[in-house]
Amino acid sequence: MDEVLIEGLRVETVIGVYEWERHVQQRLELDLELTTDIRAAARDDDLTHTLDYAAICERLTTYAADNAHGLVETFAERVAQLVIAEFGVRRLRLTVRKPGAVASARAVGVRIEREAG
Ligand SMILES: Nc1nc2c(c(=O)[nH]1)N=C([C@H](O)[C@@H](O)CO)CN2
Q1: 2-115: CATH number
Q2: Does residue 47 line the site of ligand 1, with CB under 6 A?
Q3: What pTM does this model have?
Q4: Strands 2-15 and 26-36
Q5: Which pLDDT score, from 0 to 100, does residue 100 have?
Q6: Does any ligand 1 atom lie closer than 6 A to the CB of residue 109?
Q7: Every domain of the chain and the residues it spans
Q8: Which of 1, 15, 36, 98 makes the best surface tag, with the fewest CB within 10 Å?
């Protein structure tokens, strides 16, 4: 099966388990691998037959700006379910990185795989 890719999407959001983190915006970086079949889009050269990665990036940026979470795990799960529900994605792999959370690490985060249904 084919995949539509989004790599290194930077979003600003309220995220963290500590009290001070409830009052600041922090950056998360998202990678998504979205399983789909691109053959109809390629055959007809038609965006409406595939996943519009620009539309998904815009939606996730808005979601992050409008919602607060404690754990990166919670953010990842909500984003995965949103992408499945709103964009009709059947299967995805999502990596969420929180750069700067641990000074001695380039980034920390989670990676999940989810399927519709
Ligand atoms: N597995 C996780 N561990 C930690 C998280 C998290 O979301 N998932 N969060 C924190 C703090 O918010 C930290 O990022 C502040 O620097 C600690 N551990």
Answers
A1: 3.30.1130.10
A2: no
A3: 0.97
A4: antiparallel
A5: 87
A6: no
A7: 2-115
A8: 1
